[in-house]
Every structure is written in C-alpha cells, then in structure tokens.
Known about the structure:
This protein is an alpha/beta fold. It has 15 helices and seven strands. Strands 3-2-1-4-5 form a five-stranded mixed β-sheet, with helices on both faces. A two-stranded parallel ribbon has the order 6-7. It is globular, with a radius of gyration of 23 Å.
Amino acid sequence: MRSIxxxxxxxxxxxxxxxxxHLFMAKPxxxxxxxxxxxxxxxxxxxxxxxxxxMQLKQHFTVYPHPPQRKRQDAINQLVKAVQRxxxxxxxxxxxxxxxxxxPLIEEVCSQTQAKFCVASEAGISAWSxxxxxxxxxxxxxxxxxxxxxxxxxxxxxLGELLRTEPSCLSVGMYxxxxxxxxxxxxxxxxxxxxxxxxxxxxxxxxxxxxxxISGITPSVAKEIIKFRAEHGPFKNRIALKKVKGLGPxxxxxxxxxxxxxxxxxxxxxxxxxxxxxKFAKDLCQRIGVNLKGVIDQSxxxxxxxxxxxxxxxxxxANDEAICxxxxxxxxxxxxxxxxxxxxxxxxRIDQIRSGD
Length: 357
C-alpha cells in the first residue's frame, strides 16, 4: 500500500513539474508594453495598478463600479485617465470574483483608448500579496492592492513573477495539497532552473529570487550582485561580474553564460554563449565570412542561413556545434516562437464569435 501511495506521489509531482514548465515558458509581452492590472471585486472595490516597461509600479488606486457603490462611470473615467496618462497598451483582468461583471467595464475603457485586454489567472496572487517579499517591496501598499501589481507583472514576465509564488498555490498538477510541500518546492525549483538556463537572465534587471537560481550562485552571492548593481550602476559587461564580492573564478565559469548584459560593448555578452567560447565563435564567423553582429541581432538572414548549413555539414564536434547554435540563436528569446497571450478589444460575448476566429 505504501509503495502505491509513493508511486502516486511521484506521478503527481511529475505532472506538476510538466504543467509548471508550460506556465514558466509562456511568452512574455514586449519589453515596451505598459500594463494595467485590474483585480476585480464587489464591496471592497476593484484594485488597479499600472506597471511600466521596467516592471516598476507607476500608479495604484481602487474603483467601485459594482454594487453596493455602483460608481461605474467614475471608474471608467479614472481608468481611461490612467491608460492615457501612462500610455497603457495592455489591461489584465483577474479571473476571480466579479471578473465577468467587470469585462463590459474594461471593454468600454478599451473602446475609448487603444488598449487591449485579457483575462489572467489569479492563482497564488493572494498568497504572494501577504508574503514577506511583497511587504518588503511595497511596504506602503495594502495587501489587496499588491494583487493588481502581480497581475500586471505576471503577464508582462510570466517566468520571473511565477517564481515569486508559493508552488502549492499555483493550481497546476494533481493533488498539490496532498503532496509534501518540500518535494513540491524542489520540483518547482528544478523546473525554474531549467527554464531560466534556457532563456537566460538579464543581470541588470533581475531580482534576487531569479539570480539565485542560476548555476553556481548562492542566495548570498545573488544579494551581492544586487548590492553591486545598486552601488555602481548597471553592469557594463560580463567581466564586471568578477568584481562582485564572493563571485570567484569558479562561480564565474558556472554562471556567466546565463547572465546576460544587453548594453555591453561585447555583443556576445547579450547571448547565451559562454565567455570562454567567444574566441571560437568570432574565429568561426570570420573564417566562413559571416557578420557576427548581424547574426546576433538577427538582421543578417544570409549569415544565419550560412551558419546553419555549416552546422548541418557535420564538420563540427558536439561542443563546437552547440556553440554555433547559440550564436545562431543570438539575442532571440526561445519563447519567441510560442503563442502570445490573446488580447482583445471587443470580443466579450459568445455571440460575437465568427467563423475563423
């Protein structure tokens, strides 16, 4: 009987991991997107938060369009004003209480602006809003208002924000509440690390909760990276990571290929190519007559095709082939091929659906 239960637990955790990976690897919005999070509610109002292009909170407030207050027009006016003031491009509505009743309201706001909207899961948001990390980041904001911030951020950067959420509160997999929390957390950490290493991390914008998941980096070193960034400004290149306290040569070798610096003079710093492989990548491109910069920023389509043919020729060993594939990937996010969250300005009722939608 015990072995059957253990087998069931293993399958539940495996299903949790598979489903969580799909959530982690959801395609984020464009980095230029300004997002408004709308957490609907009745008596206590609908919480609103605007997050800018660098994920910073710009404004938050509460509107009361539903019973008992019924201040619908006032809510529309405030929302339209916020959208226009901050240049909001996307509105995210939580799928909890009063979601259905709030859709016509948001539709009206979108009709008066250029914003689009979608409905997103609120799973785990309430748990995060009362967590220590949320209180430290937003000490002057009520827990109920923090939920709107998370809603906006979750669609803007799914991977980064889902990592903040308690695994058992994410509503994925089977029987999460029956599985030991330690095993569930270990599975979540493993999936997070797989996804982060596949995508890469912007060392100049990522928080401690993300950086500490990268190979070789402990929580204390992650905090030192944030501290160095705060004291000295953004990292200029990957080599600057060596100046961080506690980040020695061995840790640098483990983590540097996954921590990316997008404004570095060294263009390969913005890729997943390891610094130890820069010389090979440059020599290869020069030898076969390919513009490295054009390949990295994906503007030289002929050069990319040439490199792909070189990989397919079978002339490279496994390691060199892997490096070449990373060069071809360049600055492209592996999630770019996935389907974007579907935003709509007008589709809110079943009778509006047409053939081909």
